[in-house]
Amino acid sequence: MTDQTRKSITTLFFDVNETLLDIQPLKQFLVDNLSATPEVADAWFTSLLHFSLVDAISGNWHPFGDIAEAVLAMTAGKYGLKPGHVSGTISEALATLPAHADVPAGLESLKYAGLKLVALSNSSQSLVERQLTYAGIRPFFDDVLSVANLRTYKPDLTVYQWALRTQGAQAEQAMMVAAHGWDVGGAKLAGLKTAFVARPGQQLYPLAPEPDLVVADVSLLPEALATLSRAEM
């Protein structure tokens, strides 16, 4: 990346679940719902991502919340568990996730630097709007995009290409920020710059292109961008 290319970065696309929002309360909801262990909740989330990709590849698209409920039933069946009588739904639990502690300050610094911030989520449009509003970070974003508009899921390359078009940005002007190796891998293959947020337990996919940046949390992203720029001068 040349310094001129770095200066041309105008838009940051952010994944939402796990990257910006802490999903531990969601996992606890599942533990309570299924009377299960945290490992089972982790298995549910992994399967949710898996079957969203199955929908994307097969063309048999369903809303993310519907897939979440279906995978919950599958997970319960796999482990011989019966869903309990916990109040609320998975969608409601998703809608009330808190932001990671590092996120507000990080987003504020990026916004102050003049970058356009866009949320790009596998959640439905209404759900991701509720999530960002509840977490108190919606005002930082210039736009909020849901893959439901395309009836597919990240990391389908068409999602990133569509997101670029909505913002009138070229791939070299944009960076995808995510805590999932598959998300930054897909964005990189679509031509975007990428930043991997190394949340606990998250790993890069070794067979995907390397991201441009790796940071421990969002608050470190502004300085990482500045350091990258200086290094390329």
TrEMBL record:
Cite the InterPro entries for this sequence: 2-HAD, HAD-like_sf, HAD-SF_hydro_IA, HAD_2, HAD_sf, PGP-like_dom2, S-2-haloacid_dehalogenase
GO MF terms listed in the record are: (S)-2-haloacid dehalogenase activity; metal ion binding
Pfam families linked to this entry: HAD_2
Keywords, alphabetical: Hydrolase, Metal-binding
Give the catalytic activity: an (S)-2-haloacid + H2O = a (2R)-2-hydroxycarboxylate + a halide anion + H(+)
Q: So what EC number does this one have?
A: 3.8.1.2
Q: Establish whether keyword S-adenosyl-L-methionine is in the entry.
A: no
Keyword Metal-binding, does the record have it?
yes
What EC class is this? hydrolase
NCBIfam families, per database record: HAD-SF-IA-v2, HAD_type_II
Write out the function statement from the record: Catalyzes the hydrolytic dehalogenation of small (S)-2-haloalkanoic acids to yield the corresponding (R)-2-hydroxyalkanoic acids.
Q: Which family does it belong to?
A: Belongs to the HAD-like hydrolase superfamily. S-2-haloalkanoic acid dehalogenase family.
Q: What is this protein called?
A: (S)-2-haloacid dehalogenase
Q: Which organism is it from?
A: Citrobacter youngae ATCC 29220
Q: Show the taxonomic lineage.
A: Bacteria, Pseudomonadati, Pseudomonadota, Gammaproteobacteria, Enterobacterales
